[in-house]
């Protein structure tokens, strides 16, 4: 049987009910591709030991850094190096974002809050 194909935007619309609730799209070696809808503003945080990559699939987002924001639209990609404090936020209603990171990466990194997700669902 061939691997299963997923349309990430359609799957996000069907299965992700709330913002900042990452879902696993697939496993790639020791990393995961995760999809989330972004909301108004996330927690400031850093990942002390992991880089984190973002690819905007639909809508627009900003990733705030302490020295200024970077805005991303559909098709834009950015890598946030390990240890760099950042805060993602939406610029449009519920943008859909694909994230690449080690499977052990916690969405809120070194911060704990109501937005921390420890039990990820799969698309």
UniProtKB/TrEMBL annotation:
InterPro entries linked to this entry: Cupin_2, PKS_Associated_Protein, RmlC-like_jellyroll, RmlC_Cupin_sf
Classification via Pfam families: Cupin_2 (PF07883)
Highest taxon above the source species: Bacteria
TM segment ranges: none
Coiled-coil portions: none
Positions of the Cupin type-2 domain: 39-99
Record protein name field: Cupin domain-containing protein
């Amino acid at each position: 049987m061939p691997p299963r194909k997923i349309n990430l935007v359609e799957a996000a619309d069907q299965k992700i009910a709330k913002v900042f609730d990452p879902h696993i799209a697939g496993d790639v070696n020791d990393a995961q591709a995760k999809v989330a809808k972004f909301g108004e503003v996330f927690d400031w945080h850093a990942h002390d030991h992991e880089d984190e990559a973002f690819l905007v699939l639909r809508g627009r987002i900003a990733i705030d850094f302490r020295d200024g924001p970077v805005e991303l639209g559909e098709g834009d990609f950015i890598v946030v190096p390990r240890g760099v404090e950042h805060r993602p936020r939406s610029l449009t209603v519920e943008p859909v974002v694909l994230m690449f990171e080690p499977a052990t990466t916690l969405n809120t990194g070194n911060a704990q809050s109501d937005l921390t997700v420890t039990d990820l669902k799969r698309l």
